[in-house]
Amino acid sequence: MAVAGSVIGDGVRLVRLLGRGSHSAVYFAVDREGQPRSVKVFPDYLAPFADREYAHGVGLTHSRLAPVLARTALEECPALVLTYARGQTLFQRYVSRPALLAERQAFLLTMTHLLDALGYLHGRGLVHRDIKPDNIIVEPEGAAKLVDYDLSGRAYEPLALPTRIGTGAFLSPEAARGDPQGPESDLYGVGVLLGWGIHGQLLTPGEAAPMTRDPLTPLWRSLTRPDRRARPRDAAAVRAELLELAQKPL
Question: Which GO terms describe its molecular function (predicted)?
């Protein structure tokens, strides 16, 4: 299938491939007014993921999210047109580690923007269910957007069978078991990223953490508690605690 140069929907022209995920290929595109867009193209057999992302991503109005603008098709494959998120994925942006030592203010801005996005989604009764570096697009100064809603769903959405939804190292214990997920499950992923920012590495559950004097350490431990009932559930409260602790000296 020739993709570059293809025109889909209401005059959206695909320009170049940006990357490939587990469910779709993502292209940079421009609309008929010359505005930059992202286009996600799904194989036809993964149409349910396109349907889910459209259902949960259309109509989002928060500045820290990249909403779905339209559902269309490229030949026989479902495609979504989205607001373009400028920047790099989180791990590409923060190559100097630990990020909270190398670029503290920028990384704190990224974390607050991520929590802003989650607060909005949770307020709509949704959970993202795939908090990971590839889904956080960061600009040079640290401003960030949360993208990709093809695994998103209603909070505590009942599942016919235990279904593991999410990505590897960032899965909460309940997500790894295939249990329904709530806001505390998304915030577990935030905690994993915060720990990466503190320590410069992803720690496996139960692994002894390197010694650190970072005042954000208690928040990291709180967000990654194995018992979901002991974890924070309010993204706005976590944001406030993050900013308060960040004022303390290292």
Answer: ATP binding; protein serine/threonine kinase activity
